[in-house]
């Protein structure tokens, strides 16, 4: 759906993008993360044909941003960080205006208006001036305008910036709903937003892509500078607590065991290991005992820790 190939962008002598490449498949919700000035917004503006790259290309649904700019724009819905809303227009008139800009066929207008008003939750405010709306509703109107022409791809730049916590949750849910039908690319510096909405995260720093994976894999693979790991297990055993700890500490690379709960011989423990992946060895050890294992889970770092690990010292 989106194929980015060696994009570079200079502003005078400053290189904002340094030959980035990535692929986005149809139906993905992908978050682009990075510190301020990392190149996130520049990337989106190039993909939406607002900026030309200094070099490189992007192929969007089989169309080059360099050679087929007008056709690319027709299949993209773009919501910039500061949505271009007109406060004196009512919501209905604004959506009709956006449909005209996107050259939506008149025969499809009523159908698309009905869809965007419903999916974006705008029924109650459809006749109100945009200037009277809350920030949350204004962002909904911006999203509705971005999808009025039924684009295949939705590109959002900081979609929850400036919203209160309740509004943020509402917009996140809306993004996930839209992601059921469209490919979505979201630029944000709010890490919890990516964890809550995205199936994949691309981290950009100083114009380079430094990580590209699912939020879960990023948390597992980049959460620590060292190779240590933390494992939670739940077991059933008649052994007393001290005996359980002593036996687990005999397993290679385990250096600490904490008992979190102990009820009716079911013990929940946190195991700290110097091994990057100790679960196989822990499982083999437990199988050699008379213990019954109910659960074994590796604790992942949150994405905020990952982000700090990958970008610290470079902001």
UniProtKB/TrEMBL annotation:
Pfam families under this entry?
ABC_tran (PF00005)
State a single Gene Ontology molecular function: ATP hydrolysis activity
- The answer to keyword Transport applying to this record is yes
Q: Which PROSITE patterns match?
A: ABC_TRANSPORTER_2
Query: Which keywords appear in this protein's UniProt record, sorted alphabetically?
Result: ATP-binding, Nucleotide-binding, Transport
* Signal sequence extent: none
Q: Record keywords: rRNA-binding included?
A: no
Per the record, the domain of life is Bacteria
Q: Where is the ABC transporter domain?
A: 2-231
Q: Which InterPro entries match?
A: AAA+_ATPase (IPR003593), ABC_transporter-like_ATP-bd (IPR003439), P-loop_NTPase (IPR027417)
Family matches, as PANTHER family: ABC TRANSPORTER, ATP-BINDING PROTEIN
Q: Which family does it belong to?
A: Belongs to the ABC transporter superfamily.
Question: Per its record, how is this protein called by name?
Answer: ATP-binding cassette domain-containing protein
Record the organism: Brachyspira aalborgi
């Amino acid at each position: 759906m989106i194929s980015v190939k060696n994009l570079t962008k200079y502003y005078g002598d400053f290189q904002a993008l340094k030959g980035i490449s990535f692929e986005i498949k149809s139906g993905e919700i992908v978050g682009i993360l990075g510190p301020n000035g990392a190149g996130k917004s520049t990337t989106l503006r190039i993909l939406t044909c607002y900026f030309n790259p200094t070099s490189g290309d992007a192929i969007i649904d089989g169309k080059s941003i360099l050679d087929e700019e007008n056709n690319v724009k027709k299949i993209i819905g773009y919501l910039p960080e500061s949505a271009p809303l007109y406060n004196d227009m009512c919501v209905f008139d604004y959506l009709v205006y956006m449909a005209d800009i996107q050259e939506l066929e008149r025969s499809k207008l009523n159908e698309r208006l009905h869809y965007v008003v419903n999916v974006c939750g705008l029924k109650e405010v459809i006749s109100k001036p945009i200037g009277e709306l809350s920030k949350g509703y204004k962002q909904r109107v911006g999203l509705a305008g971005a999808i009025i022409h039924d684009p295949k791809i939705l590109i959002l730049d900081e979609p929850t910036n400036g919203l209160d916590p309740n509004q943020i949750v509402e917009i996140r849910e809306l993004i996930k709903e839209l992601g059921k039908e469209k490919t979505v690319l979201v630029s944000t510096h709010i890490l919890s937003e990516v964890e809550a909405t995205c199936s994949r995260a691309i981290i950009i720093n100083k114009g380079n892509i430094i990580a590209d994976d699912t939020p879960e894999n990023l948390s597992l693979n980049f959460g620590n500078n060292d190779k240590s790991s933390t494992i939670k297990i739940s077991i059933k055993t008649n052994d007393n607590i001290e005996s359980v700890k002593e036996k687990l500490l005999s397993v290679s690379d385990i250096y600490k065991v904490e008992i979190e709960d102990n009820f009716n011989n079911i013990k929940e423990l946190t195991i700290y290991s110097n091994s990057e992946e100790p679960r196989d060895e822990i499982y083999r050890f437990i199988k050699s005992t008379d213990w019954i294992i109910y659960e074994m889970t590796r604790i992942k770092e949150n994405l905020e820790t990952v982000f700090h690990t990958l970008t610290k010292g470079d902001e």
